[in-house]
Amino acid sequence: MNETLSETIDRYNDAWNAQDVETIARFHHPEIVFQNHTAGERVEGAEAVSAHIAGIFAGWPDLHFRGRRAYYGDDFVVSEWTATATHPDGRKLEWDGVDVFPFRDGLIARKDVYSTSGSARVLGS
Questions:
Q1: Number of structural domains, the chain?
Q2: With contact defined as beta carbons under 8 Å apart, do 94 and 83 qualify?
Q3: How far apart are CA 70 and CA 92, in angstroms?
Q4: Which domain holds residue 74?
Q5: Whole-angstrom distance, CA of residue 38 vs CA of residue 118
């Protein structure tokens, strides 16, 4: 299926919100690099990235993203989002971020994450 980058990112984000690691992995290039610049994490290769994402979901089982804006080029997407999740201590947190997605061969070659997670807002307080 030949879909636009907008449709691809929409389906990718839906898979993240469903915490469906198998579907997320289908969007990744075999040589994907996942780099969360805020958290100082860098993971390379499809299998290692899938395991890393599964670990994120294990630690944050109600993690959810709401897209705010997206910008599209011929072979990249920049996506602005707001995340919410419950901290293990019970606090409901919210933070903003940006993902930069270069594509190669129709697949996501990198996921570069920049966020305000270090200064997340506590909701309901």
A1: 1
A2: yes
A3: 25
A4: 5-122
A5: 8
Q: Categorise residue 114: left if φ over 0, alpha if ψ from -120 to 50, beta otherwise.
A: beta
77 has pLDDT over 70: yes
What is d(CA 117, CA 95) in angstroms, rounded to the nearest whole number? 5
Query: pTM for the whole thing?
Result: 0.92
pLDDT digits (tens, 9 = 90+) for 21-56: 999 999 999 999 999 999 999 999 999 999 999 999
Separation between Cα atoms, residue 48 and residue 34, nearest integer Å? 9
Contacts of 125 (CB under 8 A, 6+ apart): 91
CATH number at residue 37: 3.10.450.50
